[in-house]
Amino acid sequence: MDNCLFCKIVEGSIPSNKVFEDDSFLVFHDIEPAAPTHVLIIPKKHIASMNDVQSEDFAMIGELHRVAQDVAIKLGVASTGYRLINNCGPDSGQAVAHIHYHLLGGTKLGALVQNSQSHA
């Protein structure tokens, strides 16, 4: 995608502070961190959002979760806990139309949504 910020980061035309990279994924530090540890995990394949994931991408999404687990261990937040977030669409706050996950940790994270009828 010509105008995709994350595709430009993947191709190297925009620099990033990389944590991990392989043939399928790139993990880099968020430039506006919301926690002491805040990285973005993206597939190198351009997919606009979770709504655009096709059946042939399901295995890749599973592998992305393995990468998240490995990165959490590498960054030292696996044992104390971390949050893995995927925003999908404008109402969720998705700012870049390239599927990505935020991995946040390094502090006690507060509740995202409080619902008095939810006990989950």
UniProtKB/TrEMBL annotation:
PROSITE patterns: HIT_2. One of its GO terms (molecular function) is catalytic activity. It comes from the Bacteria. A motif (Histidine triad motif) lies at residues 98-102. The active site is at H100 (tele-amp-histidine intermediate). InterPro entries: Histidine_triad_HIT, HIT-like, HIT-like_sf. Residues 5-114 form the HIT domain. This is Histidine triad nucleotide-binding protein. It comes from Paenibacillus anaericanus.
